[in-house]
Amino acid sequence: MNQENPSTSQTDVAEKPAIILSDRVQEALAIAKRGADELLIEADFARKLQRSEQTGKPLRIKLGLDPTAPDLHLGHTVVLNKMRQLQDLGHTVIFLIGDFTSMIGDPSGRNVTRPPLTREQIEENAKTYFAQASLVLDAARTEIRYNSEWSDKLGARGMIQLSAKYTVARILEREDFTKRFKANTPISVHELLYPLMQGYDSVALEADLELGGTDQKFNLLVGRELQKDYGQEQQCILTMPLLEGLDGVEKMSKSKGNYIGITEPGNTMFAKVMSISDVMMWRYYELLSFKSLAEINGYKKQVAEGQNPRDIKVALAQEIVARFHTQQAAEEALADFNNRAKGGIPDDIPEVTLSGAPLGIGQLLKQANLVPSSSEAQRKIEQGGVRIDGTVISDKGLKVEAGTFVLQVGKRQFARVTLN
Length: 420
Description:
The protein is α/β, with parallel strands linked by helices. It folds into 3 domains: 8-240, HUPs (Rossmann fold, 3-Layer(aba) Sandwich), CATH 3.40.50.620; 266-341, Tyrosyl-Transfer RNA Synthetase (Orthogonal Bundle); 351-419, Structural Genomics Hypothetical 15.5 Kd Protein In mrcA-pckA Intergenic Region, Chain A (Roll). It contains 17 helices and 13 strands. The protein has helices at residues 8-11, 23-33, 42-55, 74-88, 119-133, 148-163, 168-171, 175-182, 189-205, 217-229, 266-274, 278-288, 293-304, 309-324, 327-341, 361-367, 374-382, and strands spanning 38-40, 60-65, 92-97, 142-146, 209-213, 236-240, 351-354, 359-360, 386-388, 391-392, 399-400, 403-409, 413-419. The strands form 3 sheets. It has a 6-stranded mixed β-sheet, sandwiched between helices. A 5-stranded mixed β-sheet has the order 7-13-12-9-10. Strands 8-11 form a two-stranded antiparallel ribbon. Strand 12 (403-409) and strand 13 (413-419) form a beta hairpin. The longest helix is centred in the middle third of the chain and has 17 residues, at 189-205. The chain is globular. It starts with 7 loop residues before the first helix and ends with a strand.
């Protein structure tokens, strides 16, 4: 049996008669599938959409996020964007904060046991989660839930009864568990419960559709199976790709430093978007932009006919900054970016006062918080990326005298330094 699809062999064999979809349902289906990795089961979801249109009852669409970190980045918004699109179609979206499952720790994609969070860490992180998600979702039309509502009530008896609905063999079909088992890497019992608890969330919420990243596919399918066991209509699942970061290779991650945070200053967000490659720009358009596919195809045609890709990237950067800040912030970010491109100095650079003149350039850069270490400062100097008042510094042994000057590293890092 396919380890990523535990429900295929048992629940999706019987074929159902085809239905004639209305134009509106076909449009909704196309919106749901835009940029998605996989929609299972598409025919079932089409039927749900058709029934919703006929009855006027919105579908219940679920997205669960464990508050494992306090801040969200654009990679997280890929699924949030999809939720917003479905919300704008009139369906009920449920933003589920996994305060209970966070204490287990999601083992998806990991080769070691993930340390569970404390209740204090979870509560602290959850404070900012929905506020940041509301920059994408319509908060007034979003149902906010915490899975401790029903998970805490299960108790020992309920947990045992839930565990009885799934076998160890089927849980171990999941790729990361299989690899760890074969490698004799420890797997804690509580990790085996995680897919069951996430699946039980779908039972508690009576979800029609659950969204998640491609790495969540197994867990989402467990939800389908549990709903069947509990006598409910099975949810469909929609998996979204994991967005590559600024390097265009690794998935976006704060730990890898290739991320764009949704609470970062507008100027920083704009400059980071402009730093992605012309090829990666189209993937960002597909997964992050709210522009129609027709508009995006129009952009592609313009580039093919000779339009500078930079102009198209500017439109993307402004759209993203405007979404998380304001349109005025987007205009100011463009002006700031153009100013920097011409060698200009931004207006909003930090001001730092230091002592110890004359001070070595490496220490100066480090103390001004422009580099993490003196060795990194030396590397930046070797690359010609360090300037004082616009003059490139090539002497790694330079001693900087007292005074006030603008220190620059690369294209985006500045500090106005007063050295005493």
